[in-house]
Design goal:
This protein folds into two domains: 269 residues, NADP-dependent oxidoreductase domain (TIM Barrel), CATH 3.20.20; 109 residues, no CATH class. It has an eight-stranded parallel sheet with strand order 3-4-5-6-7-8-9-10. Strands 11-12-16-15-14-13 form a six-stranded antiparallel sheet, with helices on both faces. The protein is globular. The chain is of the alpha/beta class and 397 residues long. 46% of the residues are buried. β4, α2 and β5 form a beta-alpha-beta unit. The structure holds NADP nicotinamide-adenine-dinucleotide phosphate. The site of NADP nicotinamide-adenine-dinucleotide phosphate (NAP) has 28 residues, from α9. NADP nicotinamide-adenine-dinucleotide phosphate binds next to α9. Keywords: NADP, Oxidoreductase. InterPro entries: AKR (IPR020471), Aldo/ket_reductase_CS (IPR018170), NAD(P)_OxRdtase_dom_sf (IPR036812), NADP_OxRdtase_dom (IPR023210). It holds the Pfam family Aldo_ket_red. Belongs to the aldo/keto reductase family. Its EC number is 1.1.1.307.
Amino acid sequence: MASQISITSTLPLNDRTSIPQFGFGTCASATCTQSALCALKQGYIHLDTAQIYKNEAETGQAIAQSKVAHDRIFVCSKLWEDMYTRQGAVDGVSQSLQKLGLKQIDLYLIHNPRPGPKARHESWLGLQDCVEKGWVRSIGVSNWSPAHIEQLMKEDGVNILPAVNQVEFHPWQQQRELTKYCKEKGIVVVAYSPLTQGKRLGDKVIAQMAEKYARTPAQVVLRWCLQKGVVIIPKSDKESRIVENKGIFDWELKDDDVEVIDRLDEGQKGNVGEWDPKMPNPTVAMHERKQDPSHQSSITLERSANPTNNGLWRPNIQVLHIPGEADDDGLVNTEESARHVPGVLNMHMADRLDHICGRPRLRGRHSDGPFMLGGIDQRDGDGWVSWLTSFDGLKRW
Ligand SMILES: NC(=O)c1ccc[n+]([C@@H]2O[C@H](COP(=O)([O-])OP(=O)(O)OC[C@H]3O[C@@H](n4cnc5c(N)ncnc54)[C@H](OP(=O)(O)O)[C@@H]3O)[C@@H](O)[C@H]2O)c1
């Protein structure tokens, strides 16, 4: 029965291990060690981190400082896309182990499908190697569509089915198709941004439910997710909310109220992040909604900074889409494409990935100002696209 779920309840994984259904997110945490330590003290036993959050060391410190035995804490981390080769995945896991101060990581994910099928395949082989070495126990994916998983399973040397798929999931984006597919395959869905990053907690229906059950909107939303059978990893830097968010185990939503919340689903429109797991490249998908159909002139994106990705897309970025050709890594694509842009004076490799999404690869100088440039793998979609972003003062190309 759903009401019997507790803070330490687990769901079985398809590799005969299990995952705690309730976890703690750390993305964009301003006080990661303190927050994760608070969560552990409050009885959370599952921590979610990632290379790109740059807080694996802080997460490890929280584990070390807690009085909880390491083997009682479940840790998930994720490989970022600059490590998407077989050796890169092995090196990435090795770095994560070191930063976390652990001998084994419970679950390791490929953070997103974006760099393309070859990169997905190779990095998966690398994660399989890490399972064999005993460095990670379970491996999975994040932000992948069923098509990405199906394609991976046909590749040479792939002998482990992803154990989980971590995707955005909450009442306004219920991922029905994807969860149905995952259920059929025995892949556990891990719900990220289960609280909609706080953006939809003022919803009227949720407020009515909160009143009816004498709970908070956050608790209603989290409880609904639990009753949908997914793993949840809400994040908070506030002790009061860390406590509030675990207040979801000694009660349950009645079936007809679950159905009322089911009706809030808006599909992809309900997405509060910027990922569309159905699209090979959500970043491009987002741009394409707004771009000039001629693909020739610059456009202005009117997006506000998103707190979970440190203002990845600043407002009023100038973007130029140009058709291009590419090989597997997308990098050649960007270089080739940039050559066709009048006024590009020089380019060099970006020294580090400083965004959570997006794919900055090259920085350079255009006659009008500096630019940053990323290559996009659209092979699963409708052809190759390159994009150029200028962050500083470039008015028009
Ligand atoms: N795989 C991926 O691509 C991916 C993408 C996004 C997230 N994730 C993972 O999923 C975790 C959770 O997602 P998320 O951090 O995006 O969003 P979330 O957990 O849905 O929401 C976190 C936000 O809600 C606020 N909040 C927390 N508890 C609250 C409450 N009881 N009432 C009102 N507001 C509350 C937090 O603020 P305070 O901190 O100020 O309390 C924070 O701003 C991440 O931390 C990360 O580990 C993975």
